[in-house]
Design goal:
By secondary structure, the chain is α/β, with parallel strands linked by helices. It has one domain (39-187): Alpha-Beta Barrel (TIM Barrel), CATH 3.20.20. The protein is 29% helix and 19% strand. It contains four helices and nine strands; from the N terminus they run E-E-E-E-H-E-E-H-H-E-H-E-E. Helix 3 packs parallel to helix 4 (150-165). The two termini are 27 Å apart. The model has no long low-confidence stretch (mean pLDDT 86).
Length: 188
Amino acid sequence: MENFGYVKSDKLENEYTVRENMEDKKQIEGKINMTWDYFSEYAKAPDRSGTTIDGINVVSPSFFYLDDEGNLQENVGEEGQDYINWAHDAGYKVWPMVSNAGEGMLNVTSEIMNSYQKRQELIESIVNYCVKYKLDGINIDFENMKQEDKDLYSRFIIELTPRLKEMGLVTSVDVTAPDRGRNMVTMF
């Protein structure tokens, strides 16, 4: 359980700012046109060398997923690194998907959301992969979630976003629209 408290501002002494306000620097001016490039954790990244995708400025390959233990796994490999290089060479931003797809992920995801330590471990893994692969951002696509965890999921995004933003990276989140189950992307 997390504890929060408040102190009246007139009781504070020796106050100092840990982090200055960060300026938002947009990676993309105008509309974001993103495509998901899904290939599952068992298949290799597609070979896109020599190709372009008209109208797209962001690609989101399915590189990262939570396993049954709640650990973040990667499916990048040499083919994925080639994919990242292709995307950057073609002028695309790369915001890989982090997925919680699969059987039994409802409880695994709930366990992560309900634990500050597990949320921080997941955030640290995401940050490390962003650095390792020189990514431009990340796309969170959590679909197997309990309704009662929605505020904790928001807390997770609130905790993740400043970590990525201070590195100049984007956090995008797939949300299910209330009509006909279509996914929408929200950026932070």
